[in-house]
Amino acid sequence: MARMVRFGSSGWRVPLTYGSAIAAAAASSAVLISILFLSLSKIEYSLPRFGFFAIREFHIAIRDVTHLRDMTSLAQAAPGSADSLEHLSAANDLVYIRFKRIDGTGTASEIRAYASIVPRVVDAVTRLDAMIAAGLPLDEKSLKEMGLELEQLVERMNDEYYKYGDEINVDLYSTEKSLKRFNYQIAFALAVLSLLAIGTAVLLIGRWETIKKLEFLAWRDATTGLKNRAWMSANRDVVLDRARLAGKQLRLFLIDLDHFKSVNDTFGHHIGDLLLKAVAEILQSVERPDEVVAIRLGGDEFAIMAIGDRHAAADALGDRLREQLNRFAELEGHHVRMGASIGMACFPEHGSDISTLLRNADSALYVAKAEGRSGFVTFSPAILNQFDMQLGEEAGIKRALNCDEFFLVWQPQFELATGRMIGAEALVRWRDPASGAIRLPMSFIPIAERGDLILD
Predict the structure, then answer these.
(1) How far apart are CA 29 and CA 122, in angstroms?
(2) How far is the C-alpha of 398 from the C-alpha of 339, rounded, in Å?
(3) Can you spell out the DSSP letters for 250-271?
(4) Which of 40, 246, 374, 418 has the smallest C-beta neighbourhood within 10 Å, fewest atoms?
């Protein structure tokens, strides 16, 4: 005999039999399976794949530089051959297009070592252009030096390529593989428990927890709990549009911890992680929903995107952060110096898009570190000139190193009492090939120190 179930106060009745119960459970399960597959597929599709494009671009760049190295070796073997000159010119043009015209900031920002390689390659291409323009026969000595330099660049690029690939491929590949396997497990479990209401409830709870965990892994930094670079890449334009529509100012702060490597080397990586968490707590203290968001970009780099009134003091938050981030922190009994340099750029004053704001804030950060670290600098057009001059001087120093333009002079040391020479002091000088002038250390040593071109 069928039982009757009443729904609502209107007395609507539906006969409840085993068949109708099974049919209802099956229909509900079918709907749930569809919803779960759609939701999980959406999550899978939205997982950040920021590493694969950079790896592909880096691989192509390695291939082009390797080809240029090989053509340089062939030209060295036959310096008077027109074919060698033609092949060398074609290979050099290909590398020029790759590094000077096509290469975007995406690869350089995701593979930080790539940013230091690009100027070296561009410099090599420029010098090869000059050699090619000189015509036949080619200078064998210069070709040999260029071949050795390109060989070093290829080795460096290969090292960074494999290092970067190992870091991201393991995590992203295992996450994607686990997610696909989880799709099939959910489908099988729902099919088996489709007749049991309790099974459906359990699976719904499991689905909710899984989505939350995947969202956290995709958009949060595991060490600090702050939003990560992937979140910023996906949401930065949304934040900018929110400020634009509200007629407000967007302030972009880039924060770089000073001497973080020294903390890791001195106290260990555990204390370094605790320092990162302490910095994150300070940044979280200034967060406000829909107005201020803190992001860990990676390593010791952080960012803050703050929407505020155009008439409010733009430097107030920066000064507050500088004060709170430059102090001593007590970390498990260790008295650790916490320091940070900050650069800021504002919309719309310093740029109408996020890429321009990031570039200008990074220039301001560079100046803050160059001025002695632990400072706060707001972007201004004058910074670009200073930045360009610094980069030009650094490129000149790198070229001088490669071209053996530095040389030593010896200053004798005498004992005052006897007048006897007891030693000599080695002093470095730089012979400028353009003017022929001899540059003293005070004109290039500070620039080399700021550009980390001097090794301890």
Answers:
(1) 60
(2) 29
(3) EEEEEEEETTHHHHHHHH-HHH
(4) 418
| Percent of the chain clearing pLDDT 90 (strictly above) | 18
Q: Tens of pLDDT along 32-75? A: 666 666 655 655 554 444 455 566 677 777 888 888 888 888 88
Taking the C-alpha atoms of residue 324 and residue 305, their distance in angstroms, rounded to an integer, is 18
Q: What angle (nearest 5°) sits at the alpha carbon of residue 263, between those of residues 257 and 268?
A: 135
CA distance 88 to 73: 9
> What three-state secondary structure class fits 406?
strand
- How many helical (H) and strand (E) elements, i.e. helices and strands, does the chain have? 14, 13
Question: What is d(CA 347, CA 357) in angstroms, rounded to the nearest whole number?
Answer: 7
- Burial of 239 by CB count in 10 Å (0-12 exposed, 13-18 middle, 19+ buried)? buried
> The tokens 């010098």 sit on which residue?
127
Residues β-bridged to residue 249: 308
Give the tokens for residue 239: 């934040």
Mean pLDDT of the chain: 77
Amino acid letter for position 23: A
Residue at token pair 């060295």: 76
Rounded CA-CA distance 187/164 in Å is 35
The helix (H) or strand (E) run that includes residue 69 is: helix 50-77
Which DSSP letter does residue 47 get?
S
Structure tokens at 80: 């008077």
Cα(186)–Cα(45) distance, integer angstroms: 18
CA distance 419 to 212: 80
- Two structure tokens written together for 247: 């007629």
Q: Which helix (H) or strand (E) holds 377?
A: strand 376-378
Say whether 300 is catalytic. yes
Give the chain's radius of gyration (CA, Å): 31
Cis, bond preceding 348 (omega within 30 deg of 0)? yes
Q: Which of 159, 300, 362, 432 is catalytic?
A: 300
Q: Looking at this protein, which amino acid is placed at residue 259?
A: H
Closest C-alpha to 193, from 44, 48, 372, 28? 28
Question: From residue 225, how far is each of 222, 250, 276, 315 by CA, in Å?
Answer: 6, 23, 10, 26
Closest C-alpha among 107, 20, 26 to residue 60: 107
287: region left, alpha or beta (phi > 0 left; psi from -120 to 50 alpha): beta
pTM: 0.47
pLDDT, position 12:
45
- 3-state SS assignment for residue 343: strand
Instruction: Check whether 346 has a pLDDT greater than 80.
Output: yes
